[in-house]
Amino acid sequence: MLTAVLYDVDKLVLEDRPVPQPGPDEALVRIKSCGICATDYKAIKGIRTNVRFPLVPGHEPAGVVAGVGAHVHGLKEGDEVIVCPSGYCGHCHYCRMGQSHYCEHMYTTGGDGPEDVRPGSFAEYLVTGANTLFAKPPGVSFDAACQTEPLSGAWKGIIQYSEMRVGDDVVIIGTGGIGMYCLMVARAAGAGRLIAVDVSDHALETARQLGATHTLNPKHGDVKSALYEILPRGPDLVLEAAGPIEAVNLMVSLLRRGTRWNIFGITTHEKFTLDGGLMHFLEARMDSSFSTNPLAMENAIRLIERGVVNPEKVISHRFPLAEIAKAIEVMGTPGRNKVVINP
Asked: Which CATH class name applies to 2-147+314-342?
């Protein structure tokens, strides 16, 4: 099978590998679509340093079951499925508490976080635990379906963790792929005023098309002053979906009493400063959210199936796996939104 293997920083190599065989509780999936996450791009470019080479990246896949292990029931060859990249045992304390993304035996296929990182979906085939597969609704394209994982992360962060309420004034800092899904979830959940913040005018124009009521670019003026002109009482919820530490610092500067704020996008180990007394009297509630879980995946599938969120509106580029080098180049340009690989 054709596979993209990351051997070192900026050394992503296409090569032929044997098609893997599923174990007793696993399934083999023929990948039809796989999104490129910013964390994939950061791994390839050396921005993310927690990478053990060689790595087959890619953790936003959808495809067709091509084989199942001897102990697998309820799945068969030909089933169209969505893959959750976060594998879990289902039996440990955390799994039984509904926190499978804390699983004591967790693994990831092509992503990051746990120690156990397995080959991902920048390949024609993937082997993973059968319990990580979800049925793809018949009327949903593979390109849309492969966006379930990032959409589920947006749902988990905004709805499950930060408990957004109808009418909340929401600020989304960073409107790349994941920020767009956060914005779409917030819009669908009944946000009052929905403000997108980004340094890319292209991304902000897309945000407006997807429902942002206001957009702000830090390159064009002071964001806090402009935001408090729009929201004199300040935001109810601020979600950082950008990644750089500057976005986190901006988020902290926007807080007023009672604001909920979610550290969602930053994955690098960088420090920021809080005034303890100010935080005490603000009662600003901090959340953070990483990865996904079966509850979030199921809710994301519902949103797509019912037409509440349409990932096709976020996808700007598609490339065959053989042209993944071109796809990575596009990831570094300002004129793109979500990039999808079709192996």
From this structure: alpha beta
Q: What are the angstrom distances between the C-alpha of 161 and each of 9, 263, 283?
A: 34, 11, 17
pLDDT, position 150: 97
- Cβ atoms of 62 and 146 within 8 Å: the answer is yes
Q: List, by residue range, all CATH 3.90.180.10 domains of the chain.
A: 2-147+314-342
Report the alpha-carbon distance of residue 186 to residue 171 in Å, rounded: 10
For 227, other C-beta atoms within 10 Å of its C-beta total: 23
Dist. CA 287–CA 7, nearest whole Å:
35
- List where CATH 3.40.50.720 sits in the chain: 154-288
Class in CATH terms, 154-288: alpha beta
Distance CA 270, CA 192 (A): 32
What's the rounded mean pLDDT across residues 17-22?
A: 98
User: What's at 280, amino acid-wise?
Assistant: H
**pLDDT tens digits for 232-263?**
999 999 999 999 999 999 999 999 999 999 99
Q: How far apart are CA 77 and CA 315, in angstroms?
A: 28
**Three-class DSSP category at 204:** helix
pLDDT tens for each residue of 262-275: 999 988 889 999 99
Residue 5: pLDDT band (50, 70, 90) is very high
Structure tokens at 121: 């979906």
Residue 143: strand pairing partners: none
Tell me: pLDDT of 162 over 90: yes
Cα 236 to Cα 300: distance, rounded to the nearest angstrom:
23
Question: Under 8 Å CB-to-CB from 129, ≥6 apart: which residues?
Answer: 25, 26, 27, 87, 88
What is the number of other CB atoms lying within 10 angstroms of the CB of residue 58? Answer: 29
pTM of the model as a whole: 0.95
